[in-house]
Every structure is written in structure tokens, then in C-alpha cells.
User: Fold this.
Amino acid sequence: MMYITKRMIEIRNLLQKVGQTNTVTLPSIVVIGSQSSGKSSVLEAIVGHEFLPKGSNMITRRPIELTLVNDPDARVDYGEFPDLGLHKVTDFTLIQKTLTELNQSVPESLCVTDDPIRLTIHSPRIPDLSLIDLPGYIQVAAENQPRELKRKISELCDKYIRGPNIILAISAADTDLANSTALQASRRVDPRGERTIGVITKMDLVEPEKGAAILNDRQYPLRLGYVGVISKLPPQRGLFGRETGNLLAGITRNEKSYFGSHPTEFGPEAGVSTGTMNLRKKLMQVLEQTMSSKLHETTESIQRELEETTYQFKVQYNEQPMSAEAYLAASLDDFKHQFHEFATSFGRPQLQSLLKEALDQKVLDQLAARYWNRPVEDLSVALPEPDNIADLPKAEPNSPYWHRQLDTAVSGLTRLGVGRLAATVAASAIQSHVDKLLDKSSFSKHPSARKVISDAAATVLADRSYATSDGIEISLKPYKFDPDIQPNEWDRGREHVAGVLQAELDQCQAALKSLEGAVGGRKKLREVMSFVDKARRGDIIIEGDHPSGAGGFSAALLARGREAVFLRDRADIISLRIQATRSRKCRDLQNRYYCPEIFLDAVATKLAGAAVLFLNVEMLRDFYARFPREVEAKLHEHMAGGGLDRFAREDPKVRRHLDLIQRKELLELVLQKIEELNRIAQSVPGGGPGQ
Ligand code: GDP
Assistant:
């Protein structure tokens, strides 16, 4: 007995894993009844535990798909909520609490929902059964309940009481059977009473004769018959073992004593069925028979489903295999390949030019601080008349002042922390290259794995950062006192710095242009600038930074005017200095004091060259060697504990591919199981083997 039900429930659980419950529906026992008919009590008696939500205000708002699993090995009874990941809950009050919470999570406006709560109970003392508890029918909606609640409950029940489900229609003995909502609903879908079991509760509340008459009812004949039960323990609970945790034993004893004391009405001769134990047996038999009769049909629909899936696998994927491991391996290989390409193209020359660029800015800072902040005349710049361009720089070559200026600028450059600057520039360039590679790789579709790789790069880089910058500082020491610039270095510096100055000039001019736009045109800006100039020369006196401005200009306008004047002056100086660096005098290294721009540029190039030698070995090569290993290790950690599958499924295309393969494999397994079941059912007379 019960062999087929057990296997079919296993099969259903397998199918649920791939969301295949729509095509293959296995019969369940659907429990319906009006509120307070004793529906919960009957279910609890069958299970042997109190676990259903209680309370006068408590309406069931979601169907509960209750699977009972006869588990001879279970030492204690326990429940599981597979959808919540709640396993082995042995405390039934916790199950009750969870069900109550799940129920209450349905907003009142929705009334009820057909999204079921799945609960599985394991025990050595229960049969294998698949039951669905539905919201109780209400007669009249209470004051605080929405009007449509009644209709919605009824619609929900109608959805479930369709075939091949078996209907367990609960009615109380102390109400007129003609008014039983459960029987009325069942008659609508099962007019010949072929798949309805009638349960009459509260048999203790009516006279035995009346009770027996109900069970013998001919008005609503049911092929599967009626069973009378008393699902409530009498008050002296201690005797009947609620405390001992065996609710069913207590109920059975109570029922036996009641029905046994009325042999005329309920004895063997009376031909009626009573007691929860008998009800349980009936449920098992009926479900087993229904499952057995559905075996063939179910097998066929699984076959069809498998055929369709196999076909889809062929057309969509050309039967190409796919696994999360293979996907990760391919993604990683691809990334490593891209990384290798980057590594071969990014070396010393690239580092050198990046670092030089950063140092160019530092050179400009030194120039701005030590030379350009002075009145232009101080830098011995004559007016840029065409004929005297050649003589442009006029700083007195032997003046200790200019010597000191250049020495301070050079030492400002060498002491600014080139080691740290170089390590930071290199690390951020490498990091941003890695991030760009990631954006182009398939990891871009996997934010958390992408972060793991990006973080791995940051870790390896940070690891070498201090040692590298210290090492660079040490290697730069000789340049701090005597940069020792050679003529060819001077020539290169001369050429390069003109470009740097030109770029700076372009930026100044662009900033001026955008200021023009911001104040509303060139004319307006000129006006403000001329006002600022006058004020600076002392032609006009502005008292403080008056918030409302001065000279008819607002404070904000004046601030822009001052900025524009600064930019204009800066641009003037830079223009002159560009001409100076091109002048004949600046061709000669001896005239370095006239041409600090060239000298500083040459020093910066030297510093960058020395730093890069060190960077290349200490940081870049180290990174190229360690990064791929670090990525492997970190990804390995990340993929542990189900991470690999989650990772692969983040890509919708891969997910669909994996889903289809998984479904196909599962259907193959299910088909194998169900075919085996068919063979056993055919070989054993009467349906299935004994348990
Ligand atoms: P539901 O609303 O249909 O789930 O009904 P319950 O199972 O909550 O039962 C409603 C009330 O009837 C509760 O107070 C139960 O204790 C009581 N009850 C249920 N079954 C029986 C029974 O067989 N005999 C008696 N006397 N009371 C019962």
C-alpha cells in the first residue's frame, strides 16, 4: 500500500524543482469547509500535531500545500518550508507561528491569494499524503472584512477542487447538511460524487441517532462515503495525551470510547464509517488509487514534456553542453588572455610617459610658485618685439638670486615624494586598465565576481606600494643634489616643455572663454576685468568685499572678473615664456637660469626614468606574476557554497541554457522513475507492492 503515492510525491517534488508543475498535475486531497466546521481540527488530528493558525480573527489567506511524508527513520516529527529554506523544524509551535506570519503577510486589500505556502511534515507515524488546506468558506463577511472576501474565497476554492484532485468536504454534525457550503461546492464540480469524501465533524454534539442518520445520508450520496469524527479532545486532556505530544492517540481513544458506547448507531452492523483512523485509511486508499489511475497519463505527459525539452535543446543550443564550471572556466580564460595582451603592451615606456605627465604638472606648479607669481619684468622679459625675441630672457646669469631660485625649484621637485607619486600613478593606471578589461569581459555581467577580481588587483597593488615608493625614493637620492643634466637631455627638455606650456596656455584660454560665456559675453567680461584692473592699480578703491558688489557689478561678477584677470595674466606670462624657451639663448644648457622651464623638464624626465626602472621590476612585473594567481584564489573562495551556480545564472543567456539542460536531465530522471513505477504496478496485482 501507499507505494505509488510515496513515489509520486517524490516525483512531484523533483518536478517542482524545475517549475514543471503546470504540465504534470498530480492529484492532491483538497480540504474545504466553512469557517468553524472543524476543518483545522480534522487536519491536525490526521497529522497528530497542532500546527495550524488559530484565533477568532484568523482567516486562512493562502492555500497550504501540505505534504505528509512517512519517514520510518525520523526520530522526531518535523516540518520543512522548502521555499523559505527552513528545514527540520521540530517545534510545531514554531511551524504554527511561521504559518500565521506567512498568512498575515498577505495584504488585507488582496483578501486571499492563490500563492501557496508549501509545508512538508515528516514522521514515522503519518501516511504519505498530499493535502491542500484552503481558506474556510465564510457565510457573511464580518464588519471589518472586505465585502468581496466571500466571493474571493469561493473562487480560490473553485480553482483547487477541479479534477483530478480529491475533495475532502468538511461539514459539522450540528448544522444542517443541506446548508453545507463544502458539499454545495463539491456538487458543482463533482455532481456524481465520485471524488468527494464527506467528513462529518462534531459527532459528539448531536444525538447518536441523528449523527448516524447524517452518515447514512441519501440526499447527497457520495461514492467514497462519509466518515464521522470527533476531532476535539474532551476537557480532561491529561488523560488523552495532548501533553504527551500524541494528539491522534488521544483523539482515537476518545472516538473509540464515544462511538463504542453507541453500538446500535455506530457498531459494525450499522454500516457507517467513523473515527479519524478510518478517515486516514480512506484518504490513503483513495489517493493511492487516484495516483495509480493517473500513472499512465502522468507518464505520457512527462514523456511529452521531455520530448519538447529535448527538441528545444536541439534547436536552441544545438545540443551544446553547458555547466556553471565550464562557463566560469571559459570566462576566466578569456579574461586571462585579455590580461596577457595588456601585460605585453604595457611596460616601461608606457609607465614612463604616464609618470612624466604627472611630473609635468608638478613642474608647472614649481614654475607658478617660484617664477610666474612675480611681476613679469622680474623675469627679465622685455616686450615681445620681433627683433629682441632672441634676447628675451634677461636674468643676470651670475645673480645668486636666480641661482637660488632654480635650486629651490629643483629640490622642490625632487623632494615632493616622487616615490609615492610614481607608485600611485602606476597603481591607478594598472587598476583602471584591469577595470576596463573587466568591463569588456563577460565578468561585466557579474557585478560581485567583477568586484572580487578588481579587489584582487587592488590588494596585489597595495601590497607592493610602500616598498616600491621607498625603493624609488632611495634610488632618486643622487638626483636631489646634482641632477647632472646632459646637453641632449636639455634639448629634449626644450622641445617637450614647449608643448607642456602650450597645453597650459590653451587651458587658460579655454577657461577664459568659458568665463565669457558665464558672464554673458566678451564685452561684459572686458568691462569687469577693466574695473578689476583699475582697482588693482589703485585707480578705484573698493572697500572690502561688499556682498552687493561694487562699480555696478555684483559680488559674483567681480569674483569672475578677478578670476579672468588672473587667467589673462597667466596666459600672458606663459606666452612670453614659450617664446623664451624658443629663443637662441635657451638653446644652451649654460643658460639654465634664463630657462628654468627647460631645466626642470629635463630634471623631471630624469626622475621619471629612474623611478620607472624601479617601478617596472618592483610593481609591474610583480603584479603581472601575482595577479592571475590571486584572481584564481579569490574567485575560488567566492564560488564556494553555491556561489558558482549563482554566478553562472546571473547571465540570463547562461541561465536559460543551464535551466533547459537541468530540466532535461530532471525529466529524464523522473521518466526513469515513473517507468519503473509502472513496471512495479503492472507486476503486482492490485496496483502496488505492500509497504
Ligand atoms: P475551522 O474554522 O473549520 O478550522 O474549525 P476549527 O477546527 O478551528 O474548529 C472550530 C471549533 O470547533 C473549535 O473550537 C474546535 O475546538 C471545535 N471542534 C472542532 N471539532 C470538534 C468536534 O469534533 N467536537 C467538538 N465538540 N468540537 C469540535
In short: The longest helix spans residues 596-639. The pocket of guanosine-5'-diphosphate is lined by residues 33, 35-41, 136, 201-202, 204-205, 230-232 (CB under 6 Å). Confidence is low (pLDDT under 50) at residues 240-244, 375-393, 687-691. The CA atoms of residues 516 and 524 lie 8 Å apart.
